[in-house]
Design brief:
The chain contains ten helices and seven strands. It has about 280 residues and is α/β, with parallel strands linked by helices.
Length: about 280
């Protein structure tokens, strides 16, 4: 971290606070991940009791992530609601087309807007930041169409800015790794079922329990394809007997380790296209 980086980050933080001050109440779609947690922490300092956090609880959200979201909201002293969201009942989501995220985000945005309206809140925000526009994220367009706002992106913040500022502010989640909903574990075009989501979640919990963090378990029919960060490939190989045995007990018939390792957007590579979203204000 350089003095210049921190100075730019503080300028963006000031812009973010100004954006949040545009109204005295706001609902934040709260996953408990780094981005929405950082937004919530800043909003707490600006709006206090005017902030309502809402976590949509679905079969695609790991139980460990839900518990962390509840704990982070409690630590920030903010109002927090956990609301059931039947993601697989949203139109088209279970069919898992390439624009699945847009279908899900549209249904989720409409539910969040209803909750906000019932609470007398006119603005609904999420944790989208500028870095998200460099990936295939059809859900951003859907949330734009539904009128959600992206304060972090509007303030010009990237994922690096958020980590830097969260660390500078002493927030305990500054080093939290990126997460994604469990629906991303199923290849596009293959139906998403509660059973597949359960198997992916249990498999990742098992691997994490062996000291390997950041693993993704992709469900290819009866086969589990495991992606781990490159630095953990040797560790995963050294625990291959435990991993394979554990995943077969979960219900997989075959277990494979992806030698290319994990990187964000791996499942989107099969689409054969580059991200098409543009960031706010881009040409």
């Amino acid at each position: 971290m350089t003095r210049h980086d921190l100075g730019e980050g503080i300028d963006k933080l000031d812009r973010l606070k100004d954006i949040l001050r545009a109204d005295y109440r706001i609902l934040i779609a709260f996953s408990g991940g780094l981005d929405s947690s950082f937004l919530a922490a800043v909003a707490a300092g600006v709006l206090g009791e005017g902030v309502l956090l809402v976590t949509l609880d679905s079969a695609a959200i790991p139980r460990s992530e839900l518990l962390e979201a509840v704990e982070i909201a409690r630590s920030l002293g903010l109002r927090h609601r956990v609301v059931p969201f039947e993601i697989l009942e949203a139109e088209g989501v279970a069919d898992n087309p390439p624009h699945r995220c847009a279908l899900c985000k549209r249904a989720a945005s409409r539910l969040l807007k209803r909750i906000a309206a019932e609470a007398g809140i006119t603005r609904v925000a999420d944790g989208v930041n500028l870095s998200d526009y460099g990936e295939y994220r059809p859900g951003i367009g859907a949330s734009d169409e539904e009128g959600l706002i992206h304060p972090l992106a509007e303030a010009g913040m990237t994922k690096s800015d958020i980590r830097l500022l969260a660390k500078e502010m002493g927030l305990p989640f500054s080093d939290k790794p990126a997460t994604a909903c469990l629906a991303t574990r199923v290849p596009y075009g293959e139906a998403i079922t509660p059973e597949k989501l359960r198997m992916a979640e249990e498999a990742e919990d098992l691997i994490r329990g062996l000291g390997i963090s950041g693993a993704r378990v992709r469900v290819h029919g009866p086969m589990a394809r495991i992606e781990v960060p490159s630095a953990d490939l040797e560790r995963a190989l050294s625990r291959r007997i435990e991993i394979a045995g554990g995943l077969k007990k979960i219900g997989f018939s075959y277990v494979a380790l992806d030698l290319e390792g994990y990187r964000p957007g791996r499942m989107d590579e099969a689409l054969g296209r580059a991200p098409s979203l543009r960031s706010p204000g881009s040409a």
